[in-house]
Amino acid sequence: VSMGRTLVELFYDVVSPYSWLGFEVLCRYQHIWNIDLRFRPAFLGGIMQATGNKPPAMLPKRAEYMLKDIKRMAKYYQVPVQISEDDFQRVLGTGTLGAMRFITAIDMTQPRYLEPLSREFWIRFWSQHEDISQPENILAVARQAGLSSELAQKLLEMISSPAVKNRLRETTEEAIKYGAFGMPAVVAHFNAEPHLFFGSDRLELLGSVIGE
Predict the structure, then answer these.
(1) How far apart are CA 82 and CA 71, in angstroms?
(2) Which among 49, 65, 94, 207 would be 20 to 30 A from 139, CA to CA?
(3) Three-state secondary structure of the chain
(4) CA Rg, the chain, in Å?
(5) What keywords appear on the UniProt entry (predicted)?
(6) pTM above 0.90, yes or no
(7) Quick check: is 148 catalytic?
(8) Which of 2, 16, 133, 208 is catalytic?
């Protein structure tokens, strides 16, 4: 972290539409605020399990609200999240472990692709409503993000390696240690202590805490 810049870590999983909203807002603000933004791909399933949390859509009234809420936020922040009731079943039936391991592998090897690759996973899953759990779809996402087929193939082979699995598990545990129970979990390191903010609707508060 350069002098005077606040380290802000964003723990996210591409299964989470609110993570996409938070990601895009922080990407825009990383050049306006004096922050050093670090993307921390983690596994939401692991966080839910460790903290006894459940997907918000499991509560019918909350699911009803969430549909409206995400539509409003997508419009306000100009992020192309498309959501309908069918998505709740679709999301519960799709594992993102492979995708998050793939994103972790890029973070470990070619971090400059981390932002575009993560975005393409969200676009494919939350805009185009396509599966992101199958290897051929993961490779298609990688192509969209500008990765060569050689690199994409190499990363796909890495997702079953202990190094990648451990890194994703460690990042997920780190999020839990900061107090995360869902995603996005944003941690600002300010005045020598970590400040956790949950969700994409607390970013003004984050700005205020770090003096922006």
Answers:
(1) 7
(2) 49
(3) CCCCCEEEEEEECCCCHHHHHHHHHHHHHCCCCCEEEEEEECCHHHHHHHHCCCCHHHCHHHHHHHHHHHHHHHHHHCCCCCCCCHHHHHHHCCCCHHHHHHHHHHHHHCHHHHHHHHHHHHHHHHHCCCCCCCHHHHHHHHHHCCCCHHHHHHHHHHCCCHHHHHHHHHHHHHHHHCCCCCCCEEEEEECCEEEEEECCCCHHHHHHHCCC
(4) 17
(5) Transferase
(6) yes
(7) no
(8) 16
Kindly report the number of other CB atoms within 10 A of residue 168's CB atom: 25
> Do the beta carbons of residue 212 and residue 195 sit within 8 Å?
no
In the chain, what is the straight-line distance between the N-terminal and C-terminal CA atoms, in Å?
17
Amino acid, res. 38: R
Pull the structure tokens for residue 127: 């805009």
Q: Which two tokens stand for residue 46?
A: 């692991």
Give CA angle at 72 (64, 113), nearest 5°: 105
Using an 8 Å Cβ cutoff, are 10 and 171 in contact? Answer: no
Burial class (CB in 10 A: 0-12, 13-18, 19+), 107: buried
CB atoms under 10 Å from CB of 170, counted, come to 12
- The length of the chain in residues reads 212
Locate 122 and state its tokens: 């969200």
Please check the confidence at residue 2 and state whether its pLDDT lies above 60: no
Spell 30-67 as b/e; 16+ CB within 10 A means b. Answer: beebebebbbbbbbbbbbbeeeeeebebeeeeeeeebb
